Amino acid sequence: MPDPGQIESELGVPIPGVILPPEQWAKTALKKLPSEGPLDGQAIFGRSAPIVLDVGCGNGRFVLASALRRPHMNHVGLDILPVVIRYATRRANQRGLHHVRFAVCGGHEFLERYAAPRSIHEIHVYHPQPYGQTQKQERRLVTPGFLALVHRSLVPDGLLVIQTDNPAYWQYMAATVPRFFEFHEQKGPWPDAPEGRTRREIMARRMGLPVFRGWGRPRPGLDEARLQALVAELPLPTFDATRHRRARHRRRRKAD
């Protein structure tokens, strides 16, 4: 049993929040999604509030920090890996974050099935898996179809935040995301988390990997017909996610 008041650390960086006495713990697991959507925020959270969605939330570091800083907003964290959702749920429970929910679900599936149009205020996507193997490229999250769903799901002045440490993925994002969003590159770390918003970002920076960050708001005037036209027009993410890693390896071999 963790001690109340305990501050946990991960990779030498404190995990946001402190552990509360058990009687103050929350229940943040969304254990079963309904067969049909959209989700009812009032029923899930017991209140109506702006929604922040973290797609691929991992062990929940960003969701914890954001929920602690912005208690007036409801937070939903998604990941396809049950083990990391268990970590995230435990941490949010112990910090009494009643305005947080975690679910095992893919981002594309969630937006397609459970998000009503113009119902989400922020969607965050940190370090989506680049899938270096050619046979797994179709599993990459950030596609024109996914970006169309994000655009449809966000309120008109909503926010998309996206981040990766894979240069090839960033090149694809930088060319594709601006077709749907008024997009801006974030130079340097996010001010609210100078050591990193996520476990992956902390690890990437310690390994000396570049971290690419950007944010955007939905372009006005893109109705459903225009969104689908963009989906048909724009290329899928079939880039070689390993070419920069191979180039670094060759440079190191030459230096040796």
Q: Summary?
A:
The protein is α/β, with parallel strands linked by helices and 256 residues long. It has nine helices and nine strands.
Keywords:
256 residues; alpha/beta; Rossmann fold; seven-stranded mixed beta sheet; two-stranded antiparallel ribbon
Explain what you see.
By secondary structure, this protein is α/β, with parallel strands linked by helices. The protein has a domain at 106-255: Rossmann fold, CATH 3.40.50. 34% of the residues lie in helices and 20% in strands. The chain has helices at residues 41-45, 61-69, 82-94, 107-114, 144-153, 167-176, 199-206, 224-233, 243-255, and strands spanning 9-10, 13-14, 51-55, 74-79, 100-104, 120-126, 154-164, 181-186, 212-218. The strands form two sheets. Strands 5-4-3-6-7-9-8 form a seven-stranded mixed β-sheet. Strands 1-2 form a two-stranded antiparallel sheet. Helix 4 (107-114) packs across helix 5 (144-153) and helix 5 (144-153) packs antiparallel against helix 8. It is globular and about 55 Å long. The model has no long low-confidence stretch (mean pLDDT 93).
